[in-house]
Design a protein that fits this description.
Ferritin, elongated, mainly alpha, 162 residues
């Protein structure tokens, strides 16, 4: 499997996981966040496919600011503290997928020699790092809902990452 096939598969796997998790989300706000992450993964896949075909890749903004808003809304949701932790394994899997994605794109960024590939891998690396922070926050939310409502902070530095 070459770099492109692997990257495309990785993005599809992440998208499918987020859609599955959204379907089983215990709270509407979590469902929104997961669907936003799934859509980001679709954008990543399309950008990789364009690079594979040697097409120009348009930079895409991530959904950090939108997710920040949803997280802030969820802090007001009284159902957050009564959430089930049945989905902890899925959230842990999402954290692992995003860690691997971030590391993979960091490695590919370092190896890239042409400016288009470098730009794409840098953007993907930043967005996967942002997704990692988002998944870690979701995991905290389901494992420690009372703590999360009182302490969680979401402060994206730009449109792509915390």
């Amino acid at each position: 499997m070459d770099l492109f096939e692997f990257s495309i598969k990785m993005e599809k796997d992440a998208e499918n996981l987020y859609r599955k998790m959204a379907k089983n989300a215990p709270v509407e706000g979590i469902k929104k966040v997961l669907l936003m992450l799934a859509e980001d993964e679709v954008k990543h896949r399309v950008a990789i496919e364009q690079l594979q075909k040697k097409l120009a890749v348009d930079p895409q903004k991530g959904v950090a600011l939108d997710i920040k808003t949803v997280f802030e809304e969820m802090k007001q949701d009284k159902n957050i503290t009564a959430m089930s932790v049945n989905a902890v394994e899925d959230y842990q899997k999402a954290v692992e997928i995003e860690k691997r994605g971030s590391e993979f794109y960091q490695e590919k960024f370092a190896e890239a020699t042409d400016p288009v590939s470098k730009q794409l891998f840098e953007a993907l690396m930043k967005q996967e790092t942002y997704h990692l922070r988002t998944c870690e926050n979701l995991l905290d939310m389901v494992q420690k809902p009372d703590w999360w409502v009182e302490n969680a902070e979401f402060n994206p530095q730009d449109g792509d990452q915390y």
